UniProtKB/TrEMBL annotation:
<dbReference type="InterPro" id="IPR033911">
    <property type="entry name" value="MetRS_core"/>
</dbReference>
<keyword id="KW-0479">Metal-binding</keyword>
<dbReference type="InterPro" id="IPR015413">
    <property type="entry name" value="Methionyl/Leucyl_tRNA_Synth"/>
</dbReference>
<dbReference type="GO" id="GO:0006431">
    <property type="term" value="P:methionyl-tRNA aminoacylation"/>
</dbReference>
<dbReference type="Pfam" id="PF19303">
    <property type="entry name" value="Anticodon_3"/>
</dbReference>
<dbReference type="Pfam" id="PF09334">
    <property type="entry name" value="tRNA-synt_1g"/>
</dbReference>
<dbReference type="InterPro" id="IPR023457">
    <property type="entry name" value="Met-tRNA_synth_2"/>
</dbReference>
<keyword id="KW-0030">Aminoacyl-tRNA synthetase</keyword>
<keyword id="KW-0547">Nucleotide-binding</keyword>
<keyword id="KW-0862">Zinc</keyword>
<keyword id="KW-0436">Ligase</keyword>
<dbReference type="InterPro" id="IPR032678">
    <property type="entry name" value="tRNA-synt_1_cat_dom"/>
</dbReference>
<dbReference type="InterPro" id="IPR041872">
    <property type="entry name" value="Anticodon_Met"/>
</dbReference>
<keyword id="KW-0648">Protein biosynthesis</keyword>
<dbReference type="InterPro" id="IPR014758">
    <property type="entry name" value="Met-tRNA_synth"/>
</dbReference>
<keyword id="KW-0067">ATP-binding</keyword>
<feature type="domain" description="Methionyl-tRNA synthetase anticodon-binding">
    <location>
        <begin position="370"/>
        <end position="507"/>
    </location>
</feature>
């Protein structure tokens, strides 16, 4: 059986989770759920990035001990994922003893093999982004995404010989055209790799920052937060030989474009130096924008809170809108208006109406029992064929993180079924006893079509599709993506009123 390992970024826990975090985690969860449904051994990791200056500063500003502060905030992430239907197999925290031990061991290995050296360094450091920046990147003296200007630092640091691996990294990306997706991000990194990238400062003096993993050979320095965080993709499997062998060879990272550099320049060079196989895919998202068209962020207060949105519209609706609205990799706006329009159109209008028409007619004309019929015409065969095509094709889109395209195709099938209902007009067939067989064929086809839709949408809308399947009289959880079309289920649908999605804007 194929195995797959899916990761989200390991988020900074200096605050509670926001919509950008939910965006990455929901995409990863959807990918994990599709993989499980496709019969793959799936390991899905998320977690908390708990070291670094940003966290230490936030804890101090909050008047809290740093460990207590991160303990509290990490719980907010764990709870948020539960509320959003995100179900990771593991939650790594960079303050866990096992993670720290793995980081120390990796550092010692690089130090022993001569890949780490000490030097004096002067540079501008952005605490917001947790990295040294160049003058060229600054606009009006600061990074556009930061509130504060970077600080000038002159200190002794340890350096990882990243430049030594530059040509290898460049050639690795060039020879794996599918590695970084969408590919414009690969081109962006290849352009950077044309020029020297320098070595990477991987330590901070503990006299200035004590919050971090001490270097194993020099306790006066702690590890740079990015060097620490990237290794959290490996540390949960480091002491589990079988798990590592099973999952590591097929690891797929999901990140936002803000952290593309560390995931290509730092991480690929680190993997090469540590003799770790590099990732199989890096899926890079664009940024969610607020209704003002600017990157959604806490400081601009232009975002929608994910938990408030889930409470207002349900977590399933939020999940659907996040994967349906914006092509992965591109920036796009998420606002309450966007959520409501999508809910009304796709979910309430197209899918919700199809469900209620189907259930009502099976109740009315067949006493709630799904008929068994053999009076099939070309229209039924065409729908069956479209369903089969979707079942077979959906993982290709999902595996390329084209979940929006997958949703578009499923919704096109739903609309096709709505057209089929109108064209067949079962309410007319019901009036003519000689058309009884035809009526049964239509209702059976609608029911089976909805079983397929509920399977295909279950990774995105897990709770809603569970409810729909119960109403349709089939097992709550689909067993596989490819369950063949059935003609003789003979099950009963619910006889209670069933509204899958209620419209928000009833006048539209
Ligand atoms: O960077 N739109 O953590 P972080 C879309 N700890 N996605 C967004 C977003 C937005 N407006 N804002 C944030 C870190 N994200 C490091 C990662 S990994 C080894 C270490 C998402 O809490 C996006 O996926 O700042 C981005 O890459 C991530 O949150 C950054 O989360």
């Amino acid at each position: 059986m194929e195995s797959i390992y899916i990761t989200t970024p390991i988020y900074y826990v200096n605050d509670r989770p926001h919509m950008g975090h939910a965006y990455a985690s929901i995409h990863a969860d959807v990918l994990a759920r599709y993989s499980r449904l496709a019969g793959r051994n799936t390991f899905f990791l998320t977690g908390a990035d708990e070291h670094g200056e940003k966290i230490a500063k936030a804890a101090t500003e909050n008047g809290e001990l740093t460990q207590a502060f991160v303990n509290r905030n990490a719980q907010l992430f764990i709870k948020a994922w539960k509320e959003l239907g995100v179900e990771p197999d593991d939650f790594v925290r960079t303050t866990l003893p096992a993670h720290k031990a793995y980081v120390s061991q990796a550092l010692q290995r690089l130090y022993n093999q001569g890949d780490i050296y000490q030097a004096e360094y002067e540079g501008l450091y952005s605490i917001g982004q947790e990295r040294f920046v160049t003058e060229k990147e600054l606009i009006d003296g600061k990074l556009p995404e930061d509130k504060e200007p970077p600080q000038l630092r002159r200190e002794t640091n340890y350096f990882f010989r990243m430049e030594k691996y530059r040509i290898w990294v460049k050639e690795f990306i060039e020879s794996n055209p599918q590695l970084i997706q969408p590919e414009n991000y690969a081109r962006e990194m290849l352009a950077l790799l044309e020029e020297p990238i320098g070595d990477l400062s991987i330590s901070r003096p503990s006299s200035r920052l004590s919050w971090g993993i001490p270097l194993p050979w020099d306790a006066d320095h702690v590890t740079y937060v990015w060097f620490d965080a990237l290794l959290s993709y490996v540390s949960p499997l480091a002491t589990n030989e079988a798990g590592f062998a099973r999952y590591w060879p097929n690891v797929r990272h999901i990140i936002g474009k803000d952290i593309l550099r560390p995931h290509t320049l730092f991480w690929l060079a680190m993997c090469k130096a540590l003799e770790l196989d590099p990732y199989k895919k890096l899926f890079v998202s664009g940024h969610l924008l607020g209704s003002d068209g600017r990157k959604m962020s806490k400081s601009l207060n232009n975002g929608v809170d994910p938990l408030a949105a889930a409470e207002k519209y349900t977590s399933d609706v939020l999940r659907f809108v996040l994967v349906r609205e914006i092509p992965f990799g591109v920036d796009g706006v998420i606002s309450e208006k966007v959520i409501e329009n999508r809910l009304d159109k796709d979910l309430a209008n197209d899918l919700g109406n199809l469900v209620s028409r189907t259930l009502t007619m099976i109740g009315l004309y067949c006493d709630f029992r799904v008929p068994v019929s053999s009076a099939y015409a070309d229209e039924e065969a065409a729908l069956q064929e479209q369903a089969r095509h979707l079942q077979e094709g959906i993982m290709e889109w999902v595996d390329d993180m084209k979940i929006r395209l997958a949703m578009e195709n499923v919704m096109a099938f739903v609309r096709e079924m709505n057209r089929y209902v109108s064209a067949c007009a079962p309410w007319k067939l019901a009036k003519d006893p000689s058309q009884r067989e035809r009526l049964q064929a239509v209702l059976q086809t609608l029911h089976e079509g909805l079983v397929v839709v509920s399977t295909l949408l279950s990774p995105v809308l897990p709770e809603k599709m569970k409810a729909l399947r119960v109403a349709l009289g089939v097992e709550e959880q689909p067993q596989s993506l490819h369950q063949p079309w059935q003609f003789d289920r003979g099950v009963e649908v619910t006889n209670a009123p069933f509204i899958l999605f209620a419209k928000v804007n009833t006048e539209s």
